[in-house]
Amino acid sequence: MPANLCITPDLGKEDMDPEVSTRMIILSSKANVSESEVVNFLHMLNLPLTIKWTCYGAMISGKDKYVKQAIKELRKLDPYGIFTKERGFAPGDPRRCRGHRYGPREGFHQMEKEFRILDYVGEALRNPREVEIEKKEPVSVDYFKEALESSLKEESNNSSDENKSEDDKE
């Protein structure tokens, strides 16, 4: 297997350009569009972007203004099923590309966890409601000291009981 499977192995200029951003487009399991529809739609926008089809949706990279424009148009297809996330590396970057690393990239398992809750996030966006967050008071220093002393005393008693039972065995 060739060691260099990335699209653009020399990312020097684009990688250092502060105007270039990369976003992952992640589809929830209940999304009304497929990965192929997302990629085709992005191509039809005819924007100067690098578009990569992925197992979770797509990845786009280019000048920030074009990336934001593409995301804005894309989210119109399914505002509750299409999510985006900033990615610090361009598609095919040898530091993150699976083709170079031969295995899942860092962050994949985090994204896998996030993917599991996207349906709930979409539902909350679709049906917003008022919630109240109960602010809990911090534990007082006196209570903390009391709990600590009690715990230490209990631990001390348990260890002395164990020592007594060992002495009884001898």
Task: Describe the fold and architecture.
It is a single chain. By secondary structure, the chain is α+β, with helices and mostly antiparallel strands. The protein has a domain at 12-126: Alpha-Beta Plaits, CATH 3.30.70. It has 6 helices and 4 strands. The chain has helices at residues 12-16, 35-44, 64-75, 98-101, 108-126, 141-169, and strands at residues 20-27, 49-54, 57-63, 82-87. It has a 4-stranded antiparallel beta sheet. It is elongated and about 80 Å long. Residues 1-8 have low confidence and may be disordered.
List keywords for this structure.
Alpha-Beta Plaits, single chain, 6 helices, four-stranded antiparallel β-sheet, alpha+beta, 170 residues
Brief summary:
The protein is of the alpha+beta class and 170 residues long. 46% of the residues lie in helices and 16% in strands. It has a domain at 12-126: Alpha-Beta Plaits (2-Layer Sandwich).
In the CATH hierarchy, what is the class of the domain at 12-126? Alpha Beta
Largest sheet: 4 strands, antiparallel
CATH 2nd-level architecture of the domain at 12-126 = 2-Layer Sandwich
Q: Count the DSSP helices.
A: 6
* Mean of residue pLDDT values: 81
Poorly predicted residue ranges: 1-8
Strand content is 15-25%
By CATH, the topology of the domain at 12-126 is: Alpha-Beta Plaits
- Structural class given helices, strands, pairing? alpha+beta
Number of DSSP-assigned strands: 4
Q: What is the 3D shape?
A: elongated
Instruction: Output the strand order for the largest sheet.
Output: 2-3-1-4
Q: N-to-C SSE series?
A: HEHEEHEHHH
* Rg value: 26 Å
